[in-house]
Amino acid sequence: MSAVEVVEQETFCDLSDALFRRASKRGTPEVLTDIYQEDTNIAIWKRDVSDELALAVDGFINSKKITRTMLAVNGNNAYEELTKALGSGKNIAPLIEDLAQLIDMFCCLFDLKRAGVRLTSMDHAMCPRFHVDKIPCRLVSTYQGIATEWLPNHLVDRGKLGAGSQGKPDEVSGLFHDLSDIQSMKRGDVALLKGEYWEGNARAGLVHRSPPLPAGESRLLLTLDFIDL
């Protein structure tokens, strides 16, 4: 087994209801299949953004032609539909190729006829509070800017989510104990986040957020969701 194939697994336990959850991380896309393990609620493919892809992303953001793109596509028509929505040309091609590859992987992994695609350029946090998603599973990847933050299952007081925070900021509500509890993805990482509606995962959906953006910075975020099973 090569160095990049070594699995990094963090095991967590929620003492309140004896649910065990772990994060699986490694530098190959095969790690995404770990999401099918009952005790895994986040699988992260740790990867870097190539120089070619970074230039395409910068050009796309700086063009300011589109701030949000929402599509329903399948692995076979993803490149064509993305080209229609985002434009064509050698400058943007690396971004479209990467998006199409992730869509194809997502559809194949979950045997989906179509996936819901959302590509959003923003200058503010889309979901700044920690929360769980009422879905089976979602793919997220940040092409530019600060990436998704999440909390290990055993460090979360779920009673402090939403209205349970009593309007207090996450940092002081008691949702977690210390800022060091917050885990971060990095630019280019591809993650599958298991939600509350994954079978057997009630009260174990990954708690996560879009962190605040520093002033003057922008973010390009991809999310993929189930549409047709």
Structural commentary:
It is built from 4 helices and 11 strands. With 229 residues, the chain is an alpha+beta fold. It has a single domain, classed as Jelly Rolls (Sandwich), CATH 2.60.120. The chain has an 8-stranded mixed sheet. A 3-stranded antiparallel sheet has the order 8-7-10, with no helix packed on it. β1 and β2 form a beta hairpin. α1 crosses α3 and α2 packs across α3. The two termini are 34 Å apart. The N terminus is likely disordered.
Please give the share of residues in helix: 10-25%
Counted beta strands: 11
Order of helices and strands: EEEHEHHEEEHEEEE
Give the C-level CATH assignment. Mainly Beta
Distance between the termini: 34 Å
- Number of helices, where a helix is a run of at least 4 consecutive DSSP H or I residues: 4
Q: Which percent range describes the beta-strand content?
A: 25-35%
Strand order of the largest sheet: 1-2-3-9-6-11-5-4
The CATH architecture term is Sandwich
Question: What structural class results from the helix and strand content?
Answer: alpha+beta
Rg value: 18 Å
Unreliable stretches covering 5 or more consecutive residues: 1-18
From the spread of the alpha carbons, the general shape counts as globular
What fold name goes in the CATH topology slot?
A: Jelly Rolls
**Count of discrete domains:** 1
Mean pLDDT: 88
Main sheet: strands, sense, barrel: 8 strands, mixed
